[in-house]
Amino acid sequence: MAEWIKTLVSMVVKMVIILALAPVGMMYLTWLERKVIARMQDRIGPNRVGPYGLLQPLADGIKMLTKEDTVPAGADRLCHFVAPILAVVPALYLFTVLPFGPGLVAAPLTTGLLFFVAIGSLETIALFMAGWGSRNKFSLLGAVRNAAQLIAYEVPLVVGISVVPMVVGSLNLVDIVHAQEGMRWFLFTPWGLFGFFLVLTAGLAEVNRTPFDLPEAESEIVAGFHTEYSGIKFALFYMAEFLSTLAFSVLISTLFLGGWDGPFLSGWIWVALKTFLLVFTMIWIRGTFPRFRIDQLMGFAWKVMLPVALVNLFGAALWFLMGGVLGNLLSFLLSFGTFLVTTQLWLKPRPYLSTKWVKWS
Q1: Is the dihedral of CA 161, 162, 166, 169 positive or negative?
Q2: What is the CA radius of gyration of the chain?
């Protein structure tokens, strides 16, 4: 058999396995979130279906499949139908370039990081189609919010990610993991520390997680872009969000936490542990922080995250060229100083403008 056929078959088999296991991981990610949030709120959480509620995701899936699929009378039926599919398919493809261990990557592309960012940005189109196709003002407002939010946070996300390939000299995620072998994780560098928090924060905004879930703020716009969705279509949006959360967690562990690198245990176990830690952190944030206002959300992206990301990029260049204690110190002071200044400017109270009533004669 020709070598290229063996390679192609191997890639297809790995992709099928990943695409089959990813939805299962997503299902039990919902169970984990409900259990953890319940404990934080002094509740029990799912405990009726199966031991410890472990079969609750299956019950939820059956419920979604059997619920009526309603479509508004004035909706654009094509957009309304395609949007959930367009949301979940890219979320599944994100896993094809992620390394889960030595040799455990479906498609080890030389531009794997670029592929991940490009495919991840397609969600904006899907959610806007959902809002537009529903012919509902709440849905459209949620879709416009989502487009503005993702465009705003995509910029600091890409700049924050860029420090890693700039230092490593490769966009291949496997090469990035190899560059951190021997516990030389990038998190332990000044630029890696700030890059980690930048990418984690921007990732929360990209997947519409609290406190960045303005596109579906139930206290303001009912349910945002998926107000007019029910049944399996709503389940696809739900699946896309949790799959993206899982994929971003694996990406962050690959970029800053060494991927499969670690002592004693197998590589895939280290990936699973680091991913679980990041997912738990995202759930913890959801249970702790209130939702931003839309002006706070946009201001934080442009006024704080983008300047810090740009300065952190410059700090990484200094660290790479100078090295040693001086390089580490300058890199840290530049990023930390920028963060302090921009945060103060962002939090600076606005001048009070008194309202004067004009009497019309």
Answers
A1: positive
A2: 22
Residue 40, in any domain of the structure = yes
262-291 as b/e, with b when 16 or more CB fall inside 10 Å?
beeeebeebbbebbeebbeebbebbeeeeb
Q: Which pLDDT score is estimated for 219?
A: 66
CA distances from 230 to 80, 87, 136, 223, 244 (A): 11, 15, 14, 11, 21
Low-confidence residues in the chain, pLDDT < 70 = 1, 4, 6, 11, 215, 217-220, 222-223, 350-361
Return d(Cα 10, Cα 308) in angstroms, integer: 42
Residue 185, amino acid: W
What is the distance between the alpha carbons of residues 100 and 267, in angstroms, rounded to a whole number? 7
Indicate left, alpha or beta for 136 from its phi (over 0: left) and psi (-120 to 50: alpha). Answer: beta
> What percent of the residues of the chain are helix, what percent strand, and what percent coil, each to the nearest 5?
75, 0, 25
Q: What is the DSSP letter of 179?
A: T
pLDDT in tens, 115-142: 898 888 888 888 888 888 777 877 878 8
How far from 8 is each of 2, 109, 171, 236, 296, CA to CA, in Å?
A: 10, 13, 21, 29, 48
Q: Quick check: is 96 in a domain? A: yes
Helix, coil or strand: residue 251: helix
The three-point CA angle 224-227-232 to 5° equals 125
Is residue 23 assigned to a domain?
yes
Which DSSP state fits 56? Answer: H
The C-alpha torsion from 117 through 118 and 123 to 129, rounded to 10°, is 160
Total domains, the chain: 1
Taking CA atoms, 221 is separated from 24, 208, 282, in Å, by 31, 15, 24
Contact between 108 and 172 (Cβ < 8 Å): yes
Q: What is the DSSP letter of 122?
A: T
Separation CA 256–CA 195 (nearest Å) = 8
Q: How far lies 132's CA from each of 90, 238, 348, in Å?
A: 20, 19, 36
Does residue 56 fall inside a structural domain? yes
Q: Give the per-residue pLDDT at 308.
A: 92
Q: Which amino acid is at 134?
A: S
